[in-house]
Specification:
The protein has about 350 residues and is α+β, with helices and mostly antiparallel strands. Helices cover about 45% and strands about 25% of the residues. A hairpin with a 2-residue loop joins strand 10 and strand 11.
């Protein structure tokens, strides 16, 4: 009997233990189910993130394609520029150095100063129409100014103009006074006066005016004059070294240049009255300057590595040096004496009347 009771107690205890284990299993199952839900949510989040990554990668691929096309376009542009600017080089940091052989490719720069807006707009439209013609072919830049005072304030920050078109009868400072002031400051631009009164001819001669045009302006009068001035500027530009750094453009006459010299990563240009220095490849400058033109014997000769002399400024040559017309001496590399003599004689035979 005691044994039966003891067995019953053990059975009851086992049943209790089973219930407890069942409860634990239920609890663990609940925990697992919750964990499964969380894992499912995280998997969904990961799926969304993966989708976003895929979209981003597709966008990057598309962007890469656009970049590739842009690079190809830049490459094609560079090739085009290299064909246009024959005998020159484009410096990626300090700007550009355009030599005489390609200065004609630099924009023809025109400025109009007129205080009546209707007339200013009309003159601008005529200039734009002319510039799209066969001669200029759109290679120009036009700036307009509503007054002489505005011109004096803003134009010094811009490159020199090839042509100035001034209305004479403006308020405050008139076009004639503006021209006189510019000539006093050594301005060499061509000047056309626009006027309704033909009484300024004598004063116009004082400032070297090219022409007077009476209002209203007619294209039959203006266009042939612009053609003539453009061709004259193009011809004159062949005698200049044009240095373009950033927004600064300077024309330096070949006759002014004594020599150019490499100084580290810079090119040093020496004239009798001033010096210039800019960051560029000397070998490219030298190569461009020394290229023989079809109708012109090169004016520059390489005396040694990194030294280029203007043949027109040499007064005497010895076996070891050449003497310039300002008295300065430059060394001649061994073995170049004969070549220098031949280049010197050839240049003067070609360029002496």
């Amino acid at each position: 009997m005691d044994e039966q009771n003891e067995g019953s107690v053990q059975v009851l205890q086992s049943i209790s233990d089973i219930k407890s284990s069942t409860d634990v299993v239920k609890t663990n199952t609940g925990v697992l189910l919750e964990g499964g839900k969380e894992i499912g949510q995280e998997m969904k989040i990961l799926g969304d993130v993966n989708s976003e990554i895929t979209d981003s990668m597709n966008e990057m691929a598309a962007g890469s394609g656009q970049i590739t096309k842009a690079v190809e376009a830049c490459h094609n542009t560079a090739i085009t520029l290299s064909k246009i600017f024959t005998g020159s080089f484009l410096h990626p940091i300090s700007g550009c150095v355009f030599l005489y052989s390609c200065y004609n490719k630099i924009m023809y720069r025109i400025a109009i100063c007129e205080d009546e807006k209707v007339i200013l707009d009309f003159e601008s439209s005529l200039i734009n129409e002319w510039a799209q013609g066969p001669l200029c072919q759109g290679d120009f830049q036009l700036d307009t100014y509503p007054s002489a005072e505005n011109f004096l304030f803003e134009s010094p920050d811009k490159a020199p103009y090839d042509l100035l078109i001034f209305d004479i009868q403006m308020k405050n400072m008139n076009g004639m006074e503006l021209a006189k002031k510019l000539r006093q400051n050594s301005c060499k631009s061509s000047i056309i006066f626009i006027t309704g009164i033909p009484d300024y001819a004598i004063e116009g001669y004082e400032v070297g005016a090219v022409r007077y045009i009476l209002k209203p302006i007619k294209k039959e009068v203006l266009f042939p004059l612009l053609d003539s001035l453009y061709q004259e500027s193009k011809k004159e530009s062949q005698n200049y070294f044009v240095l373009n750094q950033g927004s600064d453009i300077e024309k330096i006459s070949f006759d002014q240049i004594l020599y150019l010299e490499a100084q580290g990563h810079y090119v040093f240009l020496k004239t009798e009255n001033f010096d210039r220095q800019w960051k560029a490849s000397f070998s490219q400058v030298s190569q461009s300057l020394c290229q023989t033109q079809p109708d012109k014997v090169s004016q520059f000769f390489c005396l040694r590595r990194g030294l280029l002399v203007n043949l027109a400024r040499i007064s005497k040559i010895t076996r070891s040096e050449c003497i310039l017309d300002n008295g300065q001496t430059l060394p001649v590399a061994r073995g170049l004496y004969k070549d220098l003599n031949q280049a010197f004689i050839g240049y003067f035979r070609k360029n002496t009347p």
